[in-house]
Specification:
alpha+beta; Immunoglobulin-like; 60s Ribosomal Protein L30, Chain: A; Serine Threonine Protein Phosphatase 5, Tetratricopeptide repeat; seven-stranded mixed β-sheet; 14 helices; flat
Length: 438
């Protein structure tokens, strides 16, 4: 019996600890309006010292009144990291002597730091690590927040080998596109009217699906039907209606492929909602009908669908408007199609570059293709083409990168001069510094 009592005490204690921390767990999810920045970015070295200012904005109703937050800037570089002095903020009811952030109004904070520079910090990231203290319990953020990248240390390059910097592509091999269309039904009916199938949205969805099914570089990733019945009428009837509407819509889509003699390797997922109270509430909220607040109040007061329907029907004048404007749009089935566009494979891109057939590529494909070949001259050729065809600073910068590595300083300078000076790009500035030092 004593052992059982001990177990219960431990469980109760654990519950209290979890309850105590639960109030600040949501602070780990940064809301809209929460901003962070470091100035300058990249940070700069002067007399072997780096000075930086961190600033942040905290939106209203975020900072727990009893919480204390320690923000530690950390310089992360290859082979190590350097934790800088922390900034500590507190809620208005916290028992400490730090800058106070008001729960209702939010606030701003600023933190100046200075540290000694090491050559390893040339390529670095600066991140902010957050730890929340609440009722003597520490709750660290799941991941640090990135604040800055790199160090401007041009004067240091006099003593070390200048290191050019490349700019990366943003190539994505698979991109997704989604389209949807809706079929509306008559009250207590599940058959699809011909007039519904002539709507532009239906035609566009059909073309979208047929094109994807026949194209070699496309794949129908998902095809979903959500079928609904409006919340008026008997629940059993609405259940049958929603299922029949879903089945008929599924059959219609199958017929679209069949009539076009197109084989589509996709399984349609069909979902049914017998009484669409969520859709009803949303439609009422977005409408301009009178007494909509009264209707929404009824929905909030009663959760039983039968009682809800009865109480709304008792509002005879209101119910007539609902029957004309709201309920018809809920008798529907919604079709959602997701298609993946699959880009060129590495082998294809490599072949196109090696055989000079890459002119049709877009800028990201071209920049990525340049990384797939080993011949440096071919890389330079492709990057230059990207720069000239798309006025792409990344292309010109990467031309300069390889010329610097080959000690062809004149060619590197010529490539960098094609980039407008008002484009403030850290890698370009770095490479201009390399050219100036060589």
């Amino acid at each position: 019996m004593k052992m059982k009592g001990l177990k219960l005490s431990i469980i109760a204690l654990a519950g209290l600890i979890m309850a105590g921390c639960g109030g600040v767990e949501k602070m780990k999810e940064l809301p809209e309006g929460f901003t962070l920045k470091v100035t300058p970015n990249p940070v700069e070295v002067h007399a072997n010292k780096v000075k930086a200012t961190f600033e942040g904005t905290i939106p209203p109703k975020y900072f727990n009144k009893k919480a204390i937050v320690e923000i530690t800037p950390v310089v992360v570089y290859k082979g190590g990291e350097l934790a800088l002095p922390s900034k500590i903020l507190q809620g208005e009811d916290a028992q400490a002597n730090n800058q106070v952030i008001n729960y209702e109004a939010g606030g701003t904070w600023k933190h100046d730091v200075e540290y000694d520079y090491k050559d390893e910090m040339f390529n670095c990231e600066i991140e902010l690590r957050f730890v929340i203290t609440y009722k003597d319990k520490q709750v660290p953020f799941d991941a640090p927040q990135k604040a800055g990248i790199g160090t401007m240390a041009t004067y240091k390059l006099v003593d070390i080998d200048p290191k050019p910097v490349m700019l990366s592509d943003k190539f994505v091999r698979v991109t997704s596109e989604e389209k949807e269309a809706q079929i509306n039904f008559v009250i207590q009916k599940a058959d699809i009217r011909k007039s519904e199938l002539t709507k532009d949205e239906i035609k566009m969805l059909n073309d979208f699906l047929l094109d994807a099914a026949q194209a070699k570089d496309k794949e129908i990733k998902e095809l979903k039907i959500s079928a609904y019945a409006s919340p008026d009428g008997p629940e059993k009837l609405n259940d049958e209606l929603s299922q029949d509407r879903g089945k008929n819509t599924d059959k219609y889509l199958a017929d679209v492929f069949k009539k076009a003699k197109v084989q589509a390797e996709v399984t349609t997922a069909v979902e049914f909602t017998a009484e669409d109270w969520d859709g009803f509430q949303k439609a009422v909220q977005e409408s301009d009908i009178e007494d909509k607040e009264l209707i929404l109040r009824v929905l909030s007061m009663y959760s039983d669908p039968v009682v809800r329907e009865k109480e709304i029907k008792n509002l005879s004048k209101v119910y007539k408007v609902l029957a004309e404007k709201i309920l018809p749009q809920l008798r529907r089935s919604k079709m959602i199609a997701k298609v993946d566009l699959v880009g060129y494979s590495d082998d294809t891109l490599r072949y196109m570059v090696e055989n000079n057939t890459y002119d049709s590529l877009n800028v990201e494909e071209m920049l990525y293709a340049a990384t797939l070949v080993n011949d440096v001259n071919k890389k330079i050729e492709v990057y230059m083409k990207a720069g000239e065809k798309f006025n792409c600073a990344r292309g010109y910068n990467n031309v300069a990168y390889y010329h610097i590595l080959n000690n062809n300083i004149a060619a590197a300078k010529a490539a960098l001069e094609k980039i407008p000076t008002d484009q403030k790009i850290a890698a370009v500035t770095n490479n201009r510094g390399c050219v100036a030092l060589l």
